Structures are given as structure tokens and as C-alpha cells.
Amino acid sequence: MNITSVSFLLFALAAIVLHGVAARLRMPALRDLALLAANLYFLSTFAVGGWNGLLPMACFLALGYAGMRLLHVKQGNARLAAAVLALTLAYFFWVKKYAFIPGVLLLPHIYMTIGLSYMFFRILQLQIDAASGNVQQCPGAVAYLNYLLSFTTLISGPIQRYEDFAAYRSAPLPMTWFAFGRALERIAVGAFKVMVAAALLFAWHKQGLIALQVHASLIDKAVNGTAVISGYTLYLYCNFSGYTDIVIGVARFFGNVLPENFERPFAALNFMDFWARWHMTLSNWLKTYVYNPLVKRTMLRFPSPAVDPYIGVFAFLVTFFLIGLWHGQTFVFALYGLLLGVGVSGNKLYQVFMTKRLGRKEYRARAAHWLYQACARGITFTYFCLSLVCFWASWPQIVDLCGKLGWSGMGAVTAAIFGAATVLFECWERLRSLALTPAAAGRPLLLSRYVRTAWFTILVCATAAVTALSATPAPDIVYKNF
């Protein structure tokens, strides 16, 4: 079921009504069962391979639940925790067909993998917290399945922590008229991003790829290469953040507030700041369960204040390398993770170096200059665009793209992306600051109810018109494949 389809809209509406009726009857068990039925139906729309196709996912869910219950009973048993987590990791690698798994060990038939990567993080959180005693009471089977299979987070997140899910499950937030309007607005914004903006940007990206197939001048290479590389980055942002907007809006009708996944990532002044704004629930999860424990253990191993900054560099490299590996099973995704790790750890090294050379106060003063910040945004965006090529292209496609551009073309594309990003994002930040300046009433005009209502109407009409006139459907959600 496509998240932007009419069928999903009708399904979500029916699920909201059932949930609301159960809530009115003050029957939490019935409400949970109604939600589970909706989640299982949504999952069934992606089923492939008959019953055999469902078995690997069912086993993964059962393994996660059994491991959580066992670790909750045997709290503090480090060896048992390591064994359970290793088994969960091994099963995930096997069922996702990572390249290092021998082919003879893989299942020969097709099976459903939708949402497995996001279930993986939720299962690990439950198991780790159960082992460490951070879970006072393990969820029952129905709550466990609703948490892992929730149709608002199944396809591509966001990764909600169990304690937050449980809090909204036991005491759903009431739906006020204000919340109702904000939820609808969020859905409309998301639909516009996915069905209009992302579709146009994807077409720009594809057009650039086609244009690169013919011999062209350096200027043409720069223009088309910029369309290919930066176009995909902007497309991915609209596609992924648009999906997140839709599910956050839908979840609010169930009294659940999902965590934000994006916070103006292209306003980031460095690569570390970027990952605090892009796919935030993923980076926050890895910070909690990988980065922080790794830093703590390494500091205990090397208790020297002089080494502390470099421990952070090492931990960043490992953490973001794992982000790349999570995205895919091949060498190219390992390269993607390495580029992310080098970007973040290099950023940290630069901060350490500049602080030592200039002093903290002088470094902060220079970093606050508008020209420094404009260039920093340009560098951050450019590096991410170039790294992201490993996300959407296979190794032969990367080699072909580099061959079509040549060294001069790649240099021209890099310069073009940096220059355009530096200027355009600086202009955008200034316009945004001006537009959000409080009006006479003490509130920005753009945030008034009347302007937002007009904006909502425009988005709905534009999305409906483009959808009706378009000959091709909107691109599917990219992260649905992970």
C-alpha cells in the first residue's frame, strides 16, 4: 500500500474511527486489539511468497520478544546479554542477505522484508534496556507487536522509543481543534513534498543522467552533473521528510506524538550539526546505544584528558560507518558509511585543531561571521551530496558517472554545487529570518491562522492538480527499501 495513495487515506481513516470508538468505550484492550488488526492488515498488503514469505519476519519478531523477556528475567548477566544481542544481529544480517553471508546459507525463496531495518532498532532497544534494567515491565505480546508493526512507523520510521510509545498508549493525547488543524496541515505538507516536489526533483535528476550520456562541453557537464548529484539529495529530502510529515500527522489522530526526523538539515553549519538535523531518530539511537557507550569504555581504557577529544573522533568514525552499513548489504554502502564517518570525525578533528590554535573564544567569534557560516553550509551540503552518490548508485554506475564527467567535470560539479548552495542557502536563511520577524501583534504573520489556512488550501489544491494531470505516479518512499 503506497503511503500517498487513496487506499492508504481510506485505510487510515477507518483505523482512526475504530480507534476512536474503542477509546470512547473506555476499553483499552479493545483499542489495542483494533490497532493491532489495523497494523496487521497494513503489513499484509506488502506480503510476498505466501506463508513462506511471512515466516522469516515472524521468526524475527519471536526472537526479539523471547530475547527481551529472557534478558528482563536475567538482568545483569552480561554474557547472556551479549549472546542474545549477537543472535539478533546475526539473524538480521542473514535475513537481509548481507554480502558477507555465503549464498548457500540464504533462503532460496522470496520473503517479506518491509520494515525489518526499523524493527531491528526497536528490538535492540528493548533487549538492551531489558538487560540493563531500564525497562520496569516488559510489554505484553499485543503491545510489543503494536510497537514494532505500527503502520505509522513500519515503512521508514521514525524510530520512536518504547517508553514514549507506551506513555501515549496508556494516555493518548486528546484531539483538540488546534491539534486537528495542525495534523491535517502536516499531512498536506508531506503529501506536497512527496507527490509534487519530490516528483519534480526526481525528474530533474533523471534528466541529468540522460543528458550525461552524450558528449558535452565542460559547462554542460557541470550543469547536468549538478542536476544528477544535488537533484537526488533534494529529492531524497522531500521524499523522506514528506513521508515523515504524513505519518506524524496521521499518528496524532491516535493520540501519539512521533519524534521529529528532520529539522532544517540544509541550515546545518557543519557535518556534525547536519546529522543532528537529518534522520534524527537514527542518529539519536546510535548516539545512545553506540557512540556514548563506546566513548565511555574507551575513556576508561585510556584515562587521559589529552586523549579525550580524539576518542570522540574515533567514536564518530565507528558510529557513522555503522550508519552506512545499516543502509545496505554491499561494498558501496560500506564506502558510504566510511565517507559519513570521515566527514563527521574530520569535522570533529577540525574543531579540536581550531580550538587549540585560536582558543575557544576566538574560534567561536570567527565561526559566527555570516560569510563563514554561508561557506560552511555550502561545504556541508556539497560533501553530503557527493557522499550520497554511494547511496543511490551501484559501483558500476559510480564508475560510469565519474567516467562521463572526467576529472575536470567532477571538479566543475563540486564547485557548482558549493557555489549554488552557499549563495542560495544564505539567501534562504535571511528571507526566513525576515519572514519570521514578529508583527505588530507579537507573532509572525506567516504563522497566523489565516495565512496557514490559505497555505494549507494552496498545498491541497496544488497536490490534487499535479496528481490528476501527471502521467506517471509519484516516486515510492525511498527508505521503504531499507
Any overview of this molecule?
The protein has 482 residues and is mainly alpha-helical. 73% of the residues lie in helices and 0% in strands. It has three domains: 165 residues, no CATH class; 117 residues, no CATH class; 171 residues, no CATH class.
Short summary:
This protein has 482 residues and is an all-alpha fold. The protein contains 17 helices and no strands.
Helix fraction by DSSP (H/I, runs of at least 4) = over 70%
Mean pLDDT: 92
Number of helices in the DSSP assignment:
17
What structural class do the secondary elements suggest?
A: mainly alpha
Low-confidence stretches: none
Overall geometry: globular
Order of helices and strands: HHHHHHHHHHHHHHHHH
Helix-strand layout with pairing:
Blueprint: H1 6-24, H2 28-44, H3 50-73, H4 78-95, H5 116-132, H6 141-149, H7 162-170, H8 177-211, H9 218-252, H10 271-275, H11 280-301, H12 308-327, H13 331-358, H14 360-367, H15 370-392, H16 395-435, H17 449-469
Q: Which short descriptors sum up this protein?
A:
482 residues; globular; mainly alpha; 73% helix; 17 helices; 3 domains
